[in-house]
Design goal:
The chain has 536 residues and is mainly α. The chain contains 24 helices and two strands. It comes from Dendrobium catenatum.
Length: 536
């Protein structure tokens, strides 16, 4: 300890303690939010002043910090919070004559670091609040005599932190401030207006910040939703969803991870309490279904644009993720049925070859829902239509590479390009392989594979690109091999097609294994797909 190593410093602190205890600190600001003027949601005049306007140097801060740790309820804490507020407001006011005079950056940094690191612990120690204290328990402390003393100080600290969040632009500093506020979320239960402002700031940083800042901001929102569930969960859900919609209009290779993270964040948030989030999800899906229904009736160019845009598609993808994540443990059948209808409607609304990326994305979502629900969803017809297009079999010229995953509609000049041809064929093989992999042991697999095999064999005969011919031939061979295997096993059974229990148990032992030839083939297809994506 510094005090043990430097006795003179200890004596100096004791002398300063006596001096400070003789002075009286003025009240911080009014306890009522309505008595305060706001700028950007943060108080513009707290009415906080030191007992004098002497310059604040590093020695003064050291003394105050020591006194606060020793005696939180003493006069040093209000003085430190006054200075902390001044530091947070640095550069914010045009007239700073009422603020404390901070002599140098060292003092500025010292007071910020001490308050941000220690304030939560100081308030908890003063009130006797544990680190695991929840909202209901904390509200009981608000009836104690200590709360009348702590309340204005705590409010000053939280409000100053929110002002600092609005002031700072450095990502690492913002992450640190958010991490400190996250440990004090339970305190916000006493200050609804500050809670609302914290949600607003955190959601904004979540959608606009870089990776670590976005994560830290979401953790604050999730902590508010979890800790203050009854009061703020609905607000957190609505704010994050609206922010996601506003920031998902564009989908480029550079922001794929960002959009994916935003989706995963919302799924995690909405999964905290499905009884309350269910209605939000259902209302959103109904809204998407209504837009689709109106578009299918009108079929006008302007109406179609409401569907083939990233904002609409990302919203559908979001709820597919939510259903996929929660379907195993909850009854989400109405959400599942509605989402399948929407996705099928989108795919059938755009049969043109130019919209193949959109249709393939729809098939991908249907495969995801089928896998998580165990419900058979026919997708082969949505994939195989393009095989009849002669542009997919003819020799083509190579153009600048483009990413299928970042477009919904292919430009006309790319339709006859070799790049488009390759993406179509390889994506079709990947999607059908995923579909067949799920049902590879089903007793009806031969019937499921018959038409795709016929079309792919016809397509293979017309295809001139030797590299693609090998890929298609391997797919045909693997599907035929699995088809023949199921047919041999079917020949050994004696139960009726109406015996559903026996059908469900067909090849049950084999399903749990991973040595199936088609399963290994699908794994290799996935690996090659990931490799292609990494090269884009």
């Amino acid at each position: 300890m510094l005090l043990e190593k430097v006795p003179k410093f200890s004596k100096y602190l004791e002398s300063r303690r006596a001096e400070l205890q003789k002075s009286e600190s003025e009240e911080i600001d009014s306890d009522e939010d309505g008595d305060t003027n706001y700028s950007n949601g943060v108080s513009s005049n707290e009415g906080m002043r030191l007992h004098d306007r002497r310059a604040i140097n590093s020695h003064t801060i050291d003394v105050w910090c020591w006194l606060v740790v020793e005696q939180p309820e003493g006069p040093a804490l209000p003085n430190l919070l006054h200075t902390f507020q001044a530091a947070c407001r640095y550069g914010f006011d045009s007239d700073e004559s009422h603020l404390h005079e901070i002599l140098d950056e060292k003092v500025f940094s010292k007071v910020l670091m001490f308050i941000l690191c220690e304030a939560d612990g100081i308030f908890r120690k003063w009130l006797g609040v544990s680190d695991s204290c929840r909202k209901d328990s904390f509200l009981k402390f608000m009836n104690t005599s200590e709360w009348k003393l702590v309340r204005p100080l705590m409010k000053s600290y939280l409000r100053s932190c929110l002002l600092l969040l609005n002031q700072v632009t450095d990502g690492q500093i913002l992450v640190f401030i958010l991490s400190r506020l996250r440990s004090s979320i339970v305190f916000f239960a006493a200050f609804p207006s500050l809670t609302e402002l914290l949600i607003k700031i955190s959601v904004h940083l979540w959608v606009t910040g870089e990776e670590s800042l976005s994560l830290s901001s979401f953790l604050v929102v999730r902590e508010i939703a979890s800790m203050l569930l009854s009061d703020w969960y609905d607000t957190c859900m609505m704010k994050t969803y609206k922010a996601f919609i506003a920031h998902s209009k564009f989908f480029e290779h550079g922001n794929l991870k960002k959009v994916e993270f935003l989706m995963n964040s919302i799924v995690e948030l909405y999964s905290l309490d499905l009884q309350r989030s269910y209605q939000h999800v259902f209302a959103s899906l109904q809204h998407l279904a209504n837009i689709l229904s109106q578009t299918m009736k009108a079929k006008k160019k302007e109406e179609l644009k409401k569907i083939h845009n990233w904002q609409y598609i990302n919203c559908v993808s979001l709820w597919v993720k939510f259903i996929d994540c929660n379907l195993k443990d909850h009854d989400l059948q109405p959400l599942l049925s509605l989402s399948i209808l929407i996705i099928k409607g989108i795919a059938h609304l755009f049969p043109s070859l130019r919209y193949l990326p959109l249709r393939f994305r729809c098939v991908q979502m249907l495969n995801q829902l089928s896998l998580s629900s165990g419900v058979f969803i026919p997708v082969a017809s949505l994939v195989l239509d393009f095989l009849e297009h002669k542009g997919c079999t003819a020799d083509a010229t190579r153009v600048k590479a483009f990413d299928f995953s970042t477009v919904l509609k292919v430009p006309k000049h790319l339709l006859k390009s070799r790049n488009f041809q390759e993406e179509c064929i390889l994506s079709a093989i990947e999607l059908l392989s995923a579909h067949f992999s799920q049902w590879r042991y089903h007793i009806s697999f031969p019937e499921l594979a018959t038409i795709p095999l016929v079309l792919f064999k016809r397509f293979h005969e017309k295809l001139s690109n030797e590299t693609l011919r090998r890929q298609v031939k391997r797919f045909i061979d693997q599907v035929e091999q699995n088809k023949e295997y199921i047919e041999r096993k079917r020949a050994e059974i004696s139960f009726s097609p109406n015996d559903h229990a026996a059908i469900d148990s067909f090849l049950q032992m084999e399903k749990s294994g991973s040595n199936c030839s088609f399963n290994q083939y699908y794994a290799s297809v996935q690996q090659k797909s990931h490799s292609r994506s990494a090269l884009r």
